[in-house]
From TrEMBL:
The keyword Secreted applies. Residues 1-53, 53-114, 111-172, 178-238 form the VWFC domain. It comes from Catharus fuscescens (Veery). Gene3D superfamilies: 6.20.200.20, Complement Module, domain 1. It comes from the Eukaryota. Transmembrane segments: none annotated. Keywords: Glycoprotein, Secreted, Signal. Pfam families: VWC, VWC2L_2nd. The keyword 4Fe-4S does not apply. GO terms for biological process: cellular response to virus. It is found in: Secreted. This is VWCE protein.
């Protein structure tokens, strides 16, 4: 191929051909690879022989020292060491499964449970005779029982009630209010009671649910000289007249406070 070779020289041609120059002739043969491992990696680019610096397992390249599990291995663990793959499987006891961790890896049939004269399959849940508040479960030949969890109640203790056949207490409805209790002065009014809280123009009533409803009175009657009677909300225009702080009835005459010679009369208009 236009390149001089010394006698006895060896070289590799494309296609993994090993060639040598002997007596003026070129002799070529396919490269012979010695692979001292069980799961070699394919030859790197430009190389002819596989390498044992890693492992090829199920089509996946693994680095030397990698620990992995095969895709169909039941808890099997494998390790890549110098191109060799070694796998270990757990030793499963015959018959029943002694613990849940081994039951996940081993193909075994968990023990049934014999409890109070009854036989239960592994994983079965049941209640004790006459006690629906206790739940039991069969786990590998052993029965574990626990009480039914109850929700947290937000009512006081005296309002809690445990009914027949119930496992958890419930909150009773609070008793209906008998009246309206006013915290400011300690007075309790019966349902339907109407009173004035101090302002004669405001009236309050005690509702059936124990609440207090109040409403103000609007005065619509007006007159030039209204009379305000103590304890009465609206001024009275027909009660008489007020003069110098005194109240006079309709048609009543009285002397003037400014001139004793003048006489005044109350006229309701």
């Amino acid at each position: 191929r236009g390149i001089p070779r010394e006698p006895g020289a060896r070289w590799t041609e494309p296609g993994c051909q090993s060639c040598t120059c002997q007596g003026g002739q070129v002799l070529c043969d396919t490269v012979s690879c010695s692979v001292p491992c069980s799961h070699p990696l394919p030859a790197p680019a430009g190389g002819c022989c596989p390498t044992c610096t890693g492992c090829l397992h199920e089509g996946v390249a693994r680095d030397d020292g990698d620990v992995f599990s095969p895709s169909d291995g039941n808890c099997t663990v494998c390790v890549c060491l110098a191109g060799n793959v070694s796998c270990l499987s757990p030793e499963c006891p015959p018959g029943s499964c002694p613990s849940p961790s081994l039951a996940d890896c081993c193909s075994c049939n968990p023990d049934k449970c014999n409890f109070r004269g009854h036989t239960y399959a592994h994983g079965a849940r049941f209640s004790l005779d006459g006690d629906d508040c206790t739940t039991c479960v069969c786990q590998g030949g052993e029965v574990e029982c626990s009480f039914t969890p109850c929700p947290v109640l937000d009512c006081p203790q005296h309002q809690r009630h445990l009914g027949p056949g119930q496992c958890c207490s419930t909150c009773r409805d609070p008793p209906a209010p008998a009246g309206c209790f006013l915290d400011d002065n300690g007075v309790e009014f019966p349902v339907g009671q109407i009173w004035s809280p101090g302002d004669p123009c405001e009236l309050c009533i005690c509702q059936a649910d124990g609440s207090v409803s109040c409403q103000r009175t609007d005065c619509v009657e007006t007159c030039p000289y209204p009379i305000r009677i103590p304890g009465q909300c609206c001024p009275d225009c027909s009660a008489g007249c007020t003069y110098m702080g005194r109240i006079f009835s309709n048609n009543e005459t009285f002397p003037s406070a400014l001139d004793p010679c003048l006489s005044c009369i109350c006229l309701v208009r």
